[in-house]
Amino acid sequence: MGPGSHGEEPNCIKVVAARPFYDTTLAVEAGADVVVLDGMQGGTAATQDVFIEHVGIPTLGALREAVDALKELNMHRKVQLVVSGGIRTGADVAKAMAMGADAVSIGSAAMMALNCNADL
Q1: I want to staple 56 with a disulfide (CB 3.0 to 4.6 A). Which of 5, 40, 94, 117 is the partner?
Q2: Measuring CA to CA, which residue among 85, 84, 86, 80 is closest to residue 102?
Q3: Tell me: the pLDDT tens digits for 57-111?
Q4: CA-CA distance, 109 to 61, in Å (whole number)?
Q5: Residue 81: which residues within 8 A CB-CB, separation 6 or more?
Q6: Secondary element (H or E) of residue 20
Q7: Are 28 and 35 in contact (CB under 8 A)?
């Protein structure tokens, strides 16, 4: 059953890039129609440096593991994979799509353009 089957909303599960292979597997086994993978480059830098610099896996590296999990489960392109976290340019979008993502989410670049972290 795909997203929206029988008039239902799709089941979306967001996973962070710490254990992307296993967490993507768990999300699919829990019935996810969409897995949103958030890499370590996401966010607006409004947290401690230790988290920004040392927690998680870089987005594209995590993407490879999530795609591998979906392929192993024979669910690649059946469960949609959305990638976020540091996607800032058209080149980033192209890389993510070429590596197997179904869609990308761009947040930080838009927030920076809106001067989100300006010193007041």
Answers
A1: 40
A2: 80
A3: 889 999 999 999 999 999 999 999 999 988 888 999 999 999 999 999 987 666 6
A4: 20
A5: 24, 34, 35, 37, 63, 66, 67, 70, 100, 101, 102, 103
A6: helix 20-29
A7: yes
Dihedral angle over CA of 102, 108, 113, 116, nearest 10: 150
R_g (Cα) of the chain, nearest Å = 15
Sign of the C-alpha dihedral computed for residues 12, 16, 20 and 26 taken in this order: negative
Measured CA to CA in angstroms, residue 20 lies from 27, 36, 113, 115, 120 at distances of: 10, 10, 29, 31, 37
Q: What is the DSSP letter of 103?
A: E
The tokens 């993502």 sit on which residue?
101
Contact in structure between 82 and 101 (CB atoms under 8 Å): yes
Q: What confidence tens digit (pLDDT) does each residue in 20-60 have?
A: 999 999 999 999 999 999 988 765 566 677 766 767 788 99
